[in-house]
Amino acid sequence: MPKIGDIQLPDFPLLLAPMEDVSDPPFRALCKEQGADVVYTEFISSEGLIRDAAKSVMKLDIYERERPVGIQIFGAELDSMLQSIDIVEKSNPDIIDINFGCPVKKVVSKNAGAGILKDIPLMIKLTEEMVKRTHLPITVKTRLGWDSDSIKIVEVAERLQDVGIKAISIHGRTRVQMYKGSADWGPIAAVKNNPRMHIPIFGNGDVDTPEMAMKMRDEYGLDGAMIGRASIGYPWFFNEVKHYFKTGTHKDPPTMEERVSAARRHLQMAIDWKGEKLGVFETRRHYTNYFKGIPNFKEYRMKMVTSDEAEDVFAAFDEVMEMFGDYQFTTV
Question: Which residues, if any, are the signal sequence (predicted)?
Fold first, then answer.
């Protein structure tokens, strides 16, 4: 079974991916309850941390119930990344993850995230110095390469392992692809099949059904799956995958009561953590999936995603239970 440093994980662990404005403490708590084996924070700017920017510092909040939990940081300046390591350590995470995969232009334009895939020597140097800076296990999340002509992930992963990382998560697309097309897990399997590799290799990208998770495990031989978009508004995905692995059958989907209860808790925890305005705003993206597939639901969804007052959103949840409480969800 895979280990990240001294952290023992179950066979084929499921990891919650770091996602901006998604994988915050409230959502991580829900995913952990529903079977996520490792959770990661939203990515945090190293420059923001050393400037003590409020948004960046707030993302350092982690809780005992989340463990093992990793804090993910991004940047391309060595001094800033090293200083951020010192700051992150004070939050006492189990893992520090380096983001070498974010494809967003504002990150890439600073040579951070996937931007560093155009400068592999810098990527290796940054990683090596960060590993030396901390006693915590360093992991990396990255992509196959910058574009289809520069996919060298087998070599890159080996070099990252050689400088001391304890695990790597690889998204099966290049930066140029962004999130278009299908993820290619073949190059990730090639990393796993490199006889020199001994750290866990986690796959990421398009693991959106239990069958796809099983395919990643059985056909591609990877050590685990990092789950991103499939979990947004649907924290039950982790346990559904585990149920499928164990039984070969689909777990019954959550009932309306369970969905409304989760949405309520999610919103309340978000308000408690970041205040009403942000709490209401940043949970909106989850509601489509919380209540996906319900006919004639647009009126209620619009209330949830346009209301600025928590009271109105909670009232919308009440209306949903009253109108659709007996609705029977089916397994997709």
Answer: none
